[in-house]
Write a structure and sequence with these properties.
The complex is a heterodimer of chains A (about 280) and B (about 260).
Chain A: E1 15-26, E2 29-40, E3 44-48, H1 55-62, E4 70-75, E5 78-79, H2 85-91, E6 95-98, H3 110-121, H4 126-139, H5 155-166, E7 173-177, H6 185-202, E8 205-209, H7 213-217, E9 222-227, E10 230-235, H8 237-241, H9 246-253, H10 269-272
Parallel strand pairs in A: 3-8, 3-9, 6-7, 7-8
Antiparallel strand pairs in A: 1-2, 1-4, 4-5, 9-10
Helix pairs in contact in A: 3-4, 3-5, 4-5
Chain B: H1 2-30, H2 41-50, H3 55-77, H4 86-124, H5 127-134, H6 138-176, H7 181-191, H8 194-221, H9 227-257
Helix pairs in contact in B: 1-6, 2-6, 3-4, 3-6, 4-6, 4-7, 4-8, 4-9, 6-8, 8-9
Classes of the chains: A alpha/beta (about 280), B mainly alpha (about 260).
Chain lengths: ~280, ~260
């Protein structure tokens, strides 16, 4: 039976991340409004929702790249909103993140990109680093591309190389930001299998931020749906799919109009075209 | 009127916030020497990119400016039969003013803009964010080596500029226009003082190096992560640095060589 997050009022050992009363604003715009989220340990949790609903913002808040306006974020039992800059950099060694763009260092080869965390955080021998990097590159199918530069890689290869870099330190938490966006079906399938294999072999907690419903739901253990700055639905995928919430149904069924209107708020159309004089 | 005051206050707050962010960045970046455990390569590499790559433009410009100085100086001095003073005219002009200032302006255009664009692009492509998530502080890994490299390279480049400019002046004044070589060099040696002229020029170049690189790394780090944002940040670096160099030159000249 798949684990479910604990009741929002309690923190349990089954959750690797516990977010309470979290709010975040970008200028005058409130992006996340007093939300509670639990991410179960060792499972794949997806955070879904329409564009601009704050999915990536939530991921960056968990990585503490952004500071919340209010609330707490406990990762592995530590409230990362209270850490100093130096403590934060130590904590981040327990996390890996796959960025939507890959974010490979453009002046380093694929091999050196993957080796970078090892060179910075460990004192392993060159031989050991080489073996570890080749093992991770082999896991993502890019051992033969070790000497290529990021500019020479396709979009899918870039993301796989970035994935190898994200898992090189065997992190306890891996965050995927829109891993399937812009990928052809073959690479999307490859990435989906890689995410599932990594989760099972490393027993790490995974968070996928995506609005690619089919690919994401096929590997998700638990999911949250965000909209209008809040959580509008959460549960195991089957529960959420069967939800009565109109907002959730509109998102999962891809309906063009509904609680999320097709039209951005605007003045009256006829008036805008000058057909009616006021 | 009230709206004007509101906008004025808002602009003032924005400027204060920008200076605050720039100050914090400078403090975080300069708090400690470059991380030698990560290998001296980080600093050496930046010295190479910032300094060695600037050498060509510094040498070519220095030579041409020295040649022009000698030509202009000669046409004026020869009217009074004082062409033998060409050496002191050229050397003092270069060591005290033109060397540090022109080298700094060239440095802004060549290295400052490149540093801003590079850091801005790293931000726009999430490379800085990726570095943070790997547990590496971009302040130490990216900003600090570039800041130190600029501070180290600027005084050296200014002295290279002075040297080649004097060679250019010799080529025009002595070899072409026929000023006596002995008079040229002896006048120069007689008039130029190490502390008053050479050292003050080095201090000026050092101060310019600090300000230019500080502006360059801050504008890159603070840039909007879009192509337009990077373009704006690069332009700002060139404009702000050039104005800062000229304003600082006046202040430093007043302090160093002002009427006592």
């Amino acid at each position: 039976m798949r684990p479910t997050p604990a009741d929002n009022s309690t923190a349990t050992a089954s959750n690797w991340i516990e977010i309470r009363n979290l709010s975040f604003s970008h200028g005058p715009r409130l992006i996340l409004d007093n939300i509670d989220v639990d991410i179960p340990r060792g499972r794949i949790t997806s955070i879904m929702g329409p564009s601009g609903c704050g999915k990536t913002t939530l991921l960056r808040l968990i990585g503490s790249q952004l500071r919340p306006a209010a609330g707490s974020i406990h990762v592995g039992g530590i409230d990362i909103t209270r850490l100093t800059r130096a403590e934060l950099f130590v904590q981040r060694q327990r996390m890996g993140m796959l960025f939507q763009t890959g974010a490979l260092f453009t002046d380093l080869s694929v091999f050196e990109n993957v080796a970078f965390p090892l060179r910075v955080h460990t004192s392993l021998s060159e031989r050991m680093i080489r073996d570890l990097v080749l093992m991770k590159l082999n896991a993502v199918g890019l051992r033969g591309a070790r000497d290529m530069m990021p500019a020479e890689l396709s979009g899918g290869m870039t993301r796989r190389a970035a994935l190898a870099r994200a898992i090189i330190l065997d992190p306890e938490l891996i965050m995927y930001d829109e891993p399937f966006a812009g990928q052809d079906p073959i690479f999307a399938g490859v990435l989906r299998d890689l995410i599932r294999r990594i989760n099972q072999s490393m027993e790490c907690t995974c968070i996928i931020v995506s609005h690619d419903i089919n690919e994401t739901l096929s590997i998700t253990d638990y999911m949250y749906v965000l909209a209008d700055g809040g959580v509008i639905g959460h549960g195991v995928p089957d529960q959420v799919i069967d939800s009565d919430n109109q907002h959730v149904r509109q998102f999962l069924q891809g309906l063009p109009d509904g609680p999320v209107p097709f039209h951005y708020p605007a003045p009256d159309y006829r008036q805008d075209l000058g057909l009616e004089m006021t | 009127m009230l709206e004007f005051l509101r906008q004025l206050g808002s602009s003032g707050m924005q400027v204060a916030a920008t200076f605050g962010r720039a100050g914090i960045l400078c403090w975080q970046a300069l708090w400690g020497l470059p991380d030698w455990r990560a290998g001296p390569g980080l600093l050496v590499r930046q010295v190479y990119f910032v300094g060695v790559y600037s050498l060509i433009i510094i040498i070519v410009s220095g030579t041409l400016i020295g040649m022009v100085l000698a030509l202009q100086g000669y046409t004026v001095l020869v009217r009074f039969g004082a062409e033998a003073a060409l050496g002191q005219f050229v050397s003092l002009t270069l060591l005290r003013e033109l060397g540090p200032v022109v080298a700094a302006l060239l440095f802004v255009g060549r290295a400052g803009s490149a540093v801003t664009a590079e850091i801005g692009l790293m931000k726009a492509t999430d490379q800085l964010a990726a570095m943070e998530m790997i547990g590496v502080d971009p302040m130490k890994r990216i900003i600090r080596p570039r800041l130190w490299a600029g501070i180290i390279c600027m005084p050296v480049l200014a002295q290279v500029f002075n040297m080649v400019a004097i060679w250019g002046a010799v080529a025009v004044g002595v070899n072409w226009l026929g000023v006596d070589a002995g008079s040229f060099w002896s006048n120069m040696q007689q008039v130029v003082e190490f502390r008053e002229d050479v050292l003050n020029g080095v201090i000026k170049a050092f101060a310019f190096g600090v300000v230019i690189t500080w502006i360059a790394v801050f504008e890159g780090y603070d840039a909007e992560p879009t192509s337009e944002g990077i373009s704006t940040a690069t332009t700002r670096t060139v404009v702000y640095s050039s104005l800062a160099v000229l304003a600082m030159d006046f202040l430093l000249t007043a302090v160093m060589f002002g009427v006592h």
